[in-house]
Amino acid sequence: MVVLSFQPVQLISTSSLQRRRGASGGRSTCATIRCGIAEPSGEPAPLGQKTKYNDGFFEKAFMTLFARKMEIYAPKAAADSNKKKKGWFDYDYESFVDVSKSVILGRNRLQQQEVVREVLLSMLPPGAPAQFRKLFPPTKWAAEFNAALTVPFFHWLVGPSEVVEVEIDGLKQRSGVHIKKCRYLENSGCVGMCVNMCKIPTQDFFTNDFGLPLTMIPNFEDMSCEMVYGQVPPPFEEDPVSKQPCYADICSIANPNSTICPKLQA
Hints:
GO terms for molecular function: iron ion binding. This protein has helices spanning 14-23, 57-71, 76-85, 93-104, 109-122, 128-135, 140-153, 155-158, 183-188, 191-209, and strands at 161-168, 171-179, 214-219, 224-229. The protein has 266 residues and is an alpha+beta fold. It has 2 domains: 55-106; 129-264, no CATH class. The protein has a 4-stranded antiparallel sheet. The longest helix has 19 residues, at 191-209. The chain starts with 13 loop residues before the first helix and ends in a 37-residue tail after the last strand.
């Protein structure tokens, strides 16, 4: 299987990479950021192996909240089955991913993305997007602040990450987030879910609803990802992910005969 690799070389500065690998001596940032990884190394497992996590009460609470919100859009049979089997705190990450998989069935790319947007809006108080625009106008400070918040607050969803320096319009700023190995992509093993249920709706939500541009650049070769706050995302048709094939060997709904993941087609 040929897998495309999207390395964001134009975004991540050399000095940033040196700081990440050199100044820290190659050690994980888990000592200062609670990443919840159970691997002996403190780093995500190598590609092909599933990373082990130690999820606590708050992590499972978030998983349950998101799963319950997503279940509203799942086929009725699947939603009823989950409700009979699981209480409010019986969900784990695999359950959350399973609900996501049930949501994408029978929906096209745009419909899947709209579901995620509705879920995100349902978790916010009325008027939150407008308030966010006032508090965080599209400035360097706002981009850097949101990058810093992403690392501790979303480790349960994407795994360990770190703030990195990026270059936007010729200016360097610390508004990038390097996700070492995306937990969502690793557990779903699905290119379409990565793009339609995470990348595109998250980009659009921050860029259009919150007014703070965000570009996400997944690397399907090593399952890492770069989030760049302050950079306007390209149209879907011009984004390299639009031509990404399935993970034919690990995705349960893959079409190995297609050169492009079917879930990425309109």
